[in-house]
Each structure stands twice: as C-alpha cells, then as structure tokens.
Amino acid sequence: MPWPTWDQAAVAALISILVWLGLRTVRPARLPHQQSHLEPFALEFAFVASLYAVWRLARMLPLATTTGAMGRGRDIASLEQAMHLPSELSVQQFVLSRDWLASATSWYYATVHVPALLVFLAWMFFRHRDKYPHWRNGLVVCTAGCLAIRFVRVAPPRFFPDLGYEDLAQHYGISVYGPDVQRGVSDQFAAMPSIHVGWAAVVSLGIVAASTSIWRWVFLPHVILTTLVVAATANHWWLDGAVAVVLLLVGLAVDTAVRRYRAARRVAAAEDPVPAPVAAAEPSG
Predict the structure, then answer these.
(1) Which residue range is the domain that position 253 belongs to?
(2) Per-residue pLDDT tens for 115-152?
C-alpha cells in the first residue's frame, strides 16, 4: 500500500515550518481568532511529519537479513505455549473459514492503523489540547522503542507453514509486505513488537482517557480488534502486541514523571523566598 515516503513527509514538514514562520510574523491583533490556531497546528504538524519521515527512513537501515529470525519466531511460539496462551492459529482458522471475514481482516490490517492514528492526533489536538502532548509523547516513545527492538530480527507466524499458518494476504492480495525482505511498505522480519497494536492502543486508550462522553467506549475495541487482526493475518505473535503496549505504558509513565518533576520544581521555586535587599547604613551626623 503506497503510504507517503520519507521524503514526501520531509517536504510536508518543511512547508509546515515555513507556514509557522509566516504566521509568527503576523501581528496578533491583525490575525483573526479562527486563524490563531493555525500557528501551533503548523508547528505540531511539522513535528509529527518529521517523526513519520524518521520512521520511514529507519526501514532503510541495513537490517535486510534473516539471521536468527526464524529461530526467534519459534522461540516465541514455544514461550507462548509454555504460558498457555491461546494459539494465533485458532484465530486464523476461524477467519479463513469465512471468506468475507478473511477479506475484511486483510483490509483492516493493511489500511486502518495509519489513518486512525492521524485522525486521533488531529481530534486530540483540536478538542483536548491540554492532554495532547502527553499522548503524543507516549506515541513517540512507543514508536521509538519499536524501531529499536526491530534490530533483533523476528519472523512472524506466516513464515511457519509447518505450524499450520498461512499468509492471509496471499489469498486476498492485500499486503504491506513485498516478495522479499527489502520490498514492500513494511519490514518482513520486524514482527516484534507490533506497531499496529501499539498505535491502536494509543488511539483507544487516548480517547477513553481524554473524552468524557459515553461514546468514548465505542473506540476501546479498536485495540482489541487490531490485536485479533494481526494474529489472524499471521503477521504477529500475541507477545508482539503485548510488548508494544508495554512500551506505550512506559512512555506515558515517563512523561507523567517528567511533568510531575517539573511541576515540583516550579512550586519549589515559587515558594523559595527572595532575600530582601540590605538597606544602606545612614551616615552618622
């Protein structure tokens, strides 16, 4: 699926920076109230587009190797079995027994995670600006962690037909992976962690945490559905998604700790009494 490339994202970030600089030159009194929101949005869009460019560039790093990937994939399968987790194969077999569901599952995996995240970020920025940095920072840590861990190559379930797994995308022609390691939108052997599940967790948990509407619970199943989809397509193990969620929770916890530390420093600075100036002694008569 042709998602924007790193250079397209970099150009978008540059244009946004130029827009931001242009808006800063306009006097606030001459800038309509409706347009006053454009300045922070342009800066934030430039930041997010830059992060996306880095994410796409990271895929071009010299990681095109299968060394150890198959062995680690089997180790994860054995570990899940030792933990008595349900097999991903049971989910895939359920989906494959229904053509319409298998097609929908394949489409969901290939097309939903990026647009859902972008819509979430825009909604959070315009509707819950005070909570936006917290969830954006959690997203950054989660994504950075996924990019770092992908240096440890792990094969997904679809590379193990001897265990019964099938590549769902080969049956329905909807794949983000190319025919080899170096082709396609996504990396063939970067199963651990699942960035699909990590981003879905940002969307679901962020909406539930930020909104007060009863309709916020409608979006919670997104992360659950994504977890089932990545298993049904045989693109990820259960533990791939679990690690991504842990990375998100760590990112959110670190952001909260930093904010509390800064708040405590500000309070301490405000309570610190400023010594009164020493009055000059009057000359004796």
Answers:
(1) 66-269
(2) 999 999 999 998 998 999 999 999 999 999 988 888 88
| Residue-wise DSSP of the chain | --PPPHHHHHHHHHHHHHHHHHHHTS-GGGS-TGGGGHHHHHHHHHHHHHHHHHHHHHTTSS----TTHHHHHHHHHHHHHHTTPPPHHHHHHHHHTSHHHHHHHHHHHHHSHHHHHHHHHHHHHHH-TTTHHHHHHHHHHHHHHHHHHTTS-B--GGG-GGGT---HHHHH---SB-SSTTSBSS-TTB-SS-HHHHHHHHHHHHHHHH--SGGGGGGTHHHHHHHHHHHHTTS--HHHHHHHHHHHHHHHHHHHHHHHHHHHHHHHHHHSPPPPPPPPPPPP-
Q: Does a structural domain hold residue 274?
A: no
Residues 107 and 246 both lie in one domain: yes
Same domain for 35 and 84 = no
Q: What is the CATH number of the domain that holds 194?
A: 1.20.144
- pTM for the full predicted model: 0.82
At 136 the pLDDT is 93
199 falls within a domain: yes
Task: Enumerate residues 6+ apart whose C-beta is below 8 A from 161.
Answer: none
The count of domains in the chain is 2
Same domain? 142 vs 161 = yes
